[in-house]
Amino acid sequence: KNEVEQSPQNLTAQEGEFITINCSYSVGISALHWLQQHPGGGIVSLFMLSSGKKKHGRLIATINIQEKHSSLHITASHPRDSAVYICAVRGGSNYKLTFGKGTLLTVNP
Amino acid sequence: DVKVTQSSRYLVKRTGEKVFLECVQDMDHENMFWYRQDPGLGLRLIYFSYDVKMKEKGDIPEGYSVSREKKERFSLILESASTNQTSMYLCASSPGDRANTEAFFGQGTRLTVV
């Protein structure tokens, strides 16, 4: 079974700061997802990666398959970025996801 | 836009009641999932379905059952609700059985069992 570890568990930043959230997994995967969950809200998919790097607005996600590691970066952070960010991995042809426990990000104005 | 809709945002039920959580998706996805989310434990898979009338147990199926009579609808059933089933329940769907497909989530149902 894949173990998915996220760090940090909690992160507090000032508006405008550059944010990095890390995700490590133990077993080879076919895809990695970054998800966002606002307080009391549902989950929104931010990225799905199987290699390299993806960018969407101020969000950048990278993955290193050899090191079994992914990072989510937020540039010029804003209070509306405050949310729980969750890493999830899918192994091989299995369509089930294994989730990290999430990183609670708070961005103060 | 894909929509996954859960029937209730908040639900309060009594111990021993039979509880139905409904999930509907509008994108003709084959796969549907039920998760529960608890502080410090993250999301855990209860059941999933890869086709109509097909289901498989996830990591924590005890105390739950599911029903998928139509492709767009996946129901989670708590046969006899207990206080340890108080949680946030999330439904998700994804297309086909290809590995690299995105999952789409509902808004969640916060269930309190008293």
Plain-language structure description:
Chain A has 109 residues and is mostly beta strands. Helix content of chain A is 0%, strand content 59%. Chain A is built from no helices and eleven strands. In chain A, strands 2, 4, 5, 9, 10 and 11 form a six-stranded mixed sheet that branches. A five-stranded antiparallel sheet of chain A has the order 1-3-8-7-6, with no helix packed on it. In chain A, a hairpin with a 2-residue loop joins strand 6 (52-56) and strand 7. The radius of gyration of chain A is 13 Å and the shape is globular. The model of chain A has no long low-confidence stretch (mean pLDDT 92). With 114 residues, chain B is mostly beta strands. Chain B has no helices and eleven strands. In chain B, strands 2, 4, 5, 6, 9, 10 and 11 form a seven-stranded mixed sheet that branches. A four-stranded antiparallel sheet of chain B has the order 1-3-8-7, with no helix packed on it. In chain B, a hairpin with a 2-residue loop joins strand 5 (42-51) and strand 6 (54-57). Chain B is globular and about 40 Å long. In chain B, 35% of the residues are buried. The model of chain B has no long low-confidence stretch (mean pLDDT 92). Chains A and B meet through strand 4, strand 5 and strand 9 of A and strand 5, strand 9 and strand 10 of B.
Give the topology, please:
The complex is a heterodimer of chains A (109) and B (114).
Chain A: E1 4-7, E2 10-14, E3 19-25, E4 31-37, E5 43-49, E6 52-56, E7 59-64, E8 69-74, E9 83-90, E10 97-99, E11 103-108
Parallel strand pairs in A: 2-11
Antiparallel strand pairs in A: 1-3, 3-8, 4-5, 4-9, 6-7, 7-8, 9-10, 9-11
Chain B: E1 4-6, E2 10-13, E3 19-25, E4 31-38, E5 42-51, E6 54-57, E7 64-70, E8 73-78, E9 87-94, E10 104-105, E11 109-113
Parallel strand pairs in B: 2-11
Antiparallel strand pairs in B: 1-3, 3-8, 4-5, 4-9, 5-6, 7-8, 9-10, 9-11
